[in-house]
Design a protein that fits this description.
The protein has 5 helices and 5 strands, in the order E-H-H-E-H-E-H-E-E-H. The protein is an alpha/beta fold. The protein has a 5-stranded parallel β-sheet, sandwiched between helices. Helix 4 links the parallel strand 3 and strand 4. Helix 2 packs parallel to helix 5. It is globular and about 35 Å long.
């Protein structure tokens, strides 16, 4: 099984950006944690991060041609603005789990709307970085 983990804008700043919300672990720590769980589950995992919406769309589309079995996506701020990401996930038809480190529903009102959620098979939010592991297990099952 091949899983693509996609992270959107500012996720590369984990450990620096608002540690009171996102914690002190870095993006590299996150990748290592996911890789360890993927190895335990016997899943191949690849990572992609970009601050650019079009690059995220390209990564989703490329996953189709690379025969990826599942996508874990944290669209970050694009969660609340991007119809393009929604359309890309719908177009490729790859089972996708939306992940958020914090719980957007407990934050500013504009964060309560997720454009991508209707195209996803599940959402994990407010569980910190371990939420990615939950998403990985959802797809591995």
């Amino acid at each position: 099984m091949k899983i693509l983990v996609i992270n959107g804008p500012n996720m590369n700043m984990l450990g620096i950006r608002q540690p009171e919300i996102y914690g002190s672990a870095t993006y590299e720590d996150l990748k290592a944690m996911i890789q360890e769980e993927a190895d335990r589950l016997g899943v191949e995992v690849r990572f992609f991060q970009s601050n650019h919406e079009g690059a995220l769309v390209d990564a989703i589309q490329q996953a189709y041609f690379e025969k990826v079995d599942g996508i874990i996506i944290n669209p970050a701020a694009y969660t609340h603005t991007s119809v393009a990401l929604l359309d890309a996930v719908k177009a490729v038809g790859i089972p996708t789990v939306e992940v958020h480190v914090s719980d957007p529903d407990s934050r500013e009102e504009f964060r309560h709307v997720s454009y991508i959620r209707p195209a996803c098979v599940g959402t994990v939010r407010g569980r910190g970085l371990p939420g990615y592991l939950e998403a990985l297990r959802i797809l591995a099952e």
